[in-house]
Amino acid sequence: MTPAEHPLPSAEICLTIPFHDVDMMQIVWHGHYVRYLEIARCALLEALDYDYNDMRESGFGWPVIDMRLRYVAPAIFTQEIAIEARLTEWENRLKIDYTIRDSATRKRLNRAWTVQVAVGVEDREMRLESPAVLREKIVAWQQRQV
């Protein structure tokens, strides 16, 4: 089956850049982008019906083990931005790709990705493949899309 027949979830959130996120040039400080990714990732996980509380209750933590951000253009004070999070891998890890755009023009401001792995809450051991609960959530999400 093709990827089009088995789509993966995505989510997009919008936010307006607040004053406390900018430097003296009214440009978003680079470290705040990590928080923006987290907000979009939480929306994606909620769409999948497997948010951080569900993860913990299922016996797994999912720490971010790798992250990459590529800055294209700055976000500025009061600008409305859209952050899209797209699940791109899930069999052995969660890989999520992100695109941050200006909400009005859709001009790309940033590209990023994060990688998370399943870790047992009780034994703190990293799993070499994603647990069955994630596979079940992906299949259930795909079935809801039909």
From TrEMBL:
Recorded hits in InterPro entries, A to Z, give:
HotDog_dom_sf
The record's CDD domains line, in alphabetical order, gives: 4HBT
Which Pfam family would be a valid example here?
4HBT_2
Q: What is this protein called?
A: Thioesterase domain-containing protein
Taxonomic classification = unclassified sequences, metagenomes, ecological metagenomes
